[in-house]
Amino acid sequence: MTDTTHDDTSGHWLSDAERARLRRPVNQRAVVFTLAFTGLVAAFMMTLLTPLVPELPALLNVSVEDSLWAVTVTLLSAAVATPIAGRLGDLYGKRRIVLVLLVLVVAGSVIAGLSSSLLPLIVGRALQGAGIGVIPLGVSILRDVLHRDRLGGAVALVSATLGVGGAIGLPISAVISQYLDWHFLFVVSGGLAAIGLLLVWRFIPVSTLRSEGTFDGLGAVGLGIGLVGILLGVSKGGSWGWGSPATLGTIVGGAVVLLLWGWFELRTKSPLIDLRVAARRTVLLTNLASVTVGFAFFASTVVLPQLLEAPTGTGVGLGQTMLIASLCLMPSGLIMWAMSPVAARLTRARGARTSLLLGIAIIAVGYVVAIFLMSEVWHTIVIATAIGFGVGFAYASMPNLIMGAVPATETAASNGLNSVMRTLGSTIASAVLGVVLSSNLVTVGEVTTPSASAFQLAFVISAIAAVVGVLFTVFIPRHHKAYRQASLPDADDAAADIQPAGSVTKAA
Fold first, then answer.
1. How many Cβ atoms sit within 10 Å of the Cβ of residue 260?
2. What pTM, to 2 d.p., does this model score?
3. Is the pLDDT of residue 487 over 50?
């Protein structure tokens, strides 16, 4: 049995093996590359089955509604696992939890790859969805190990992977789905996750900044039940009926559970999420803005593919194949990647609040333009690129706003909650825009597609969501009393001071 000794500086226990790893020099380039790669892999899992959705009922011999669980469960799993993984990372080491999440992704890929029926596929996809927690954990690791001069750009890059992975993954999934056996999707996903696992094991240093306390298991269960209830009701409301007992029961029941969960968390000595910190004005408004950004970004992935793939006979669609439609959305992800260093420089110069405000404003303008430009393929490329431009700035700024307003020992849990807010926005977008596009149809012969007015209404709603995000961002304080707690045990603690909202705090 390995002996453990107490690290008097950091206030927690480290094994001899962990101490040995701490003596290794940190390759900061390798750390950034590793966390960006794992972020891309995790985001890829979210869109892995998207091109295959129309064929799933026939492949699995199930109904259309049942087949959608293979997609829905990934979303639910990501929403529940992310804040829990963040708290576990703060308590027991972020590197350790990232490794666990990647093991779950590999296991999920194996289970799904061997499946020929719906139930094992759902299990595998749930395990894959849990992997999305590596992105907020990765952002928190960057704060712990990078020099402050490199932190802003690295945070922007890793944050952008949430959108980049999905945008790049779509055409890859489309090619595999179209030309190879669909099980090969999970061979690719499992292989990528295994590579990420090895990279993390080799290059990410042991987490030395950990919180005191114990894991709040009851709080984790309560949060999971509440989130699943609300997200399930919102995502399935279109098929169940918005006034049905099932929809109302899950949404209202989930809301009641979350209220009870909040009451419990405020009275728990070691809560899963410190709601007093989450209620700080900067954190609260950033999370609310994140809901609108998640809505606006996901709206482009819901509406634009349908517009591109709808038959031209109705006078609305653009008649493109699944692969071409995926390639048209790809510039959105690439521009997010390209804008990450620009967003980092803007954040460093003007603060993360300015970067977030600019990003959401660009998204709003993009959707306003989309109302009038939707008749050519290049129109959709321009719109997707504009949305990606804005989302790139927004995603890069939100972690900096969060980390500038919470204690260093709670960065993973707080970033995890922020990720849940984006997921909530995406779920709402899927439900709302699904109803809009399915309720306004045009039929020519045997072909039925959403009408032009349906697409325009979807763009109007998305623009309104972005405008609401702008309003939330305007009210984020320009200055706040920031935590200046050191991120590594051998760093000097700096006194708290007044600084621009969202500016990066010192990291060793």
1. 13
2. 0.79
3. no
